[in-house]
Specification:
With about 230 residues, the protein is α/β, with parallel strands linked by helices. It is built from ten helices and ten strands. It has one domain: P-loop containing nucleotide triphosphate hydrolases (Rossmann fold, 3-Layer(aba) Sandwich).
């Protein structure tokens, strides 16, 4: 299993955010994590990446216990994140943002990866000298994804990729996620747009107030009345 969160319980101070959460992402899978606001979705990603340490439970990456390891270590081991609201480096150019994505790499194939990113996102090549802060929301999302791919990840974590985008751009964005997955990169995507996320996923989990309420194959969740009850809280 590429990623496994095993019975993870996470707190912010004395406030419990996650309780006993277990999720898995296999090689080459697309797995979605669904839930409403304040359900614990983003905290789950932060726990996977090491930005938040669980109070109990384990985080395993490719069979290794990385619970106490730094985010930098996990990135070197093949994890990358596209954060909520893109969070590109606004005063830097598109090209400089992509370079930041590769700053932990020690191999000599960075230029080859840049060419692959440009092939996936031709707009980033066209805008390579433009300041990232002047890009449209859709272009910033492309840049955030391209920056993550520059680390040559095996697992891509995506936090609310549809947030703030028009319906047309949301559809394009999820097509790109499918294209990235087709290259062999596993994806764990956190989303509120359940139908869109499940349409590209192999499996899904539903979080409700920090607890896994449902877990099943994507097509089964799409057809499930339990999904509506758990997701909508009624």
């Amino acid at each position: 299993m590429l990623l496994r969160l095993d019975s993870v319980t996470t707190y912010y101070g004395e406030i419990r955010i996650l309780e006993g959460v277990t999720i898995e992402v296999g090689e080459g899978e697309v797995v979605c994590l669904l839930g409403g606001n304040a359900s614990g979705k983003s905290t789950t990603l932060k726990t996977a990446l090491g930005l938040v340490r669980p109070r109990s439970g384990r985080v395993e990456l490719d069979g290794e216990d990385v619970t106490e390891r730094s985010p930098a270590y996990r990135i070197r081991r093949g994890m990358a994140i596209v954060p909520e609201n893109r969070r590109v480096f606004a005063p830097m150019t598109v090209a400089e943002n992509l370079e930041m994505g590769a700053h932990l790499r020690e191999d000599a194939d960075v230029e080859e990866t840049r060419e692959q990113v440009h092939a996936l996102f031709p707009r980033l090549y066209e805008r390579r000298a433009q300041l990232a802060g002047t890009l449209s929301g859709g272009e910033q999302q492309m840049l955030a994804m391209g920056r993550a791919l520059m680390s040559r990840p095996r697992l891509l974590l995506m936090d609310e990729p549809s947030m703030g985008l028009s319906p047309v751009l949301v559809e394009q964005n999820f097509e790109i996620i499918r294209d990235v997955n087709a290259t062999g990169v596993a994806v764990l995507v956190v989303e509120q747009n359940a139908n869109m996320a499940l349409s590209i996923a192999d499996r899904g989990y539903v979080l409700q107030t920090g607890v896994i309420a449902l877990a099943d194959k994507a097509d089964a969740l799409l057809a499930s009345d339990d999904l509506k009850r758990a997701y909508l809280g009624r």
